[in-house]
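Open question from group meeting: does this chain pack into something compact, or does most of it stay loose? Before anyone orders reagents, we agreed to write out a predicted structure and look at it together. Recording both the input and the output here so the notebook holds the full record.
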Amino acid sequence: MKWTGKRVALALGGGGVRGFCHIGVLRVLEREDIPIDLIVGTSAGALIGGAYASGQSPRDIQAKVDAYLSSPEFDASTLKSIGLAISPDQKGRWRKARAFVLNRFHLVRAFFRPAVLPTEDFRSLIDYFLPEGDIRETRVPFRAVATDLITGKQVVFSEGPLRQAVLASCAVPGAVEPVRQGEWLLADGGITSLVPVHAARAAGADVVIAVMVDRELTPDGNMATAQGIIQRAGEIAANTLEATELAGADVIIRPDVGDLHWMDFSRAGELVRKGEEAARAALKQIDASLPLYRRISRLGRRIFKG
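Structure tokens returned:
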């Protein structure tokens, strides 16, 4: 696809299960005829963005999410097991005890393996949501952001297998095994770019709409233990990096994800709605950021639809 005029990009941030908010955002943008010339995704943003860019509608993607979460494969997966272990919604003594044991089991296992989640399980998840094909063949131009653990540099995929690029972008350190590709050892794009605004600008975007689904940094973190302090330091570093990226965005959409853990599937159903609410709240700002001819064109389409 060849761009003409000013280019509008959607930068979809990482955040694990919180990335389901992106579906709601896409639904509102599509319904409101907001033009998107490029999608750049990090981690969960790469998964949802890649699915949409490849031609799936927000409704299609949500249907796949619902089907996957109710499937026997997910029910028996390590992904669900870990989600249960960290979910605060566990009720009853037996369930709480089971969650405690599972949590400790996965933490211990992580000391002896490169990742907690089996590579096959996560690859099958990517294959379930994304079609085979090259990134250059997507309906909407698409980029996936990953990080090379060897050089520490950001890697932005604009060509090559779509599934492989998204798998690398989603390879959260410790949770998903890094992806070996040539001389690269690729992991989560969120290490270097939690919301890929800079990558969208580098790809030629004139207007960037950023969607961040990370949890806000709160003053009441647990800092009574070494583990808590290390986690807090990581959160501060990520928050600072994220703020630097977001400073370059024209519009920031921030769904209210509360304190939901990135692997907690217990409230997954609410997230699409949260994304819709945040996108609707940002519509005036989005419209104001668009080039004048795009605003006029959008108004015309809405009148004729109407």
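Observations to bring back to the group:
Residues 226-246 form the longest helix (21 residues).
Residues 90-112 have pLDDT under 50 and may be disordered.
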